[in-house]
Amino acid sequence: MTSALDARRGSDYSVLARRIKQSGLLARRPGYYVARIALVVALYVGGWAALAVVGSSWWALAIAAGLGVAYAQVALVAHDLAHGQVFRGRAAAARAGLIVGNLGIGMSYGWWMDKHTRHHANPNHEDEDPDVDPDILVWSQRQARQATGVARFMGRWQAFLFFPLLLLEGFNLHVSSARGLHRSSLKRRALETVLLYSHFVVYPAAVFLLLSPGVAIGFILVHQAVFGLYLGSTFAPNHKGMPMLTAEDDLDYLRRQVLTSRNIAGGRWLDVLYGGLNYQIEHHLFPNMPSPNLRKARPIIEAYCEEIGVPYVATGVVDSYARALRHLHAAGAPLRSNE
Prior knowledge:
Blueprint: H1 2-23, H2 30-54, H3 60-82, H4 90-105, H5 109-121, H6 141-146, H7 149-154, H8 158-166, H9 169-180, H10 189-210, H11 213-235, H12 253-258, E1 263-264, H13 268-274, H14 280-285, H15 291-308, E2 314-315, H16 317-331, H17 333-337
Parallel strand pairs: 1-2
Helix pairs in contact: 1-15, 2-3, 3-4, 3-11, 4-10, 8-11, 8-16, 9-11, 10-11
């Protein structure tokens, strides 16, 4: 009886994959990506051009906020490149990723790709998912009970600190990228280093060349804060508050992806704002599916999950963040009880 059930479960994803393939939703969307990349490049270049025109004025801080949005949109394009959604060949995707990631926004494409690949393989797994490492925050009560150092201090009231901490995420990505270059397993390490540090040199040089020191410092702080807050907010509501897995959980691929992911329901404006990551379930099941096809895949996948009895969670923007914050607060409970 059990073996038969396990065999059926093992085939669930293959049945869904055939339906998705037959629907044609895995096909490339070159026109979409040409238009999207052109718009993102225009936003990026237009922001720097506007800064050059405005010069050393406090209006530069408004441009900094706009460029923070542009940087996050570039990162979302890099995300699609890493998943093979844009180009069929890995070499072309890697070259484009190095340009937009390392050189464009100061984020190591190779380091991030390795980290994100491990996240996709084991989402919300306490021991395997790098996105839930208890380095600053704790993501489960087990992690809280074992926490030391910064995580033990921050974990007590981490739900209240979460969004303020995202203001530092832009800086954290730069620091983590630089550290990631020291990994011997990193491919194209020399090229990654040259491109990343080129950004680290050119970016502040351009800012201080165009602006007075005080305005330049304000520009960098606002720019990086908006970049981190926006980018962190696109990833935060998709898994936080969903079940955490451990070595004791033996789930097949479909259930591992669906049960730990949550969609954000809304209109097409959310697709633009989140770069398609609002369809997190669809994206985790078919990570190489082009972003504009995720919306079309949703009814197929939701109906199939209902058919096989797998919970499919979709909620609104506000509720999604509320669930994430409630989960963080509950995870830190053991630390508060020890006060």
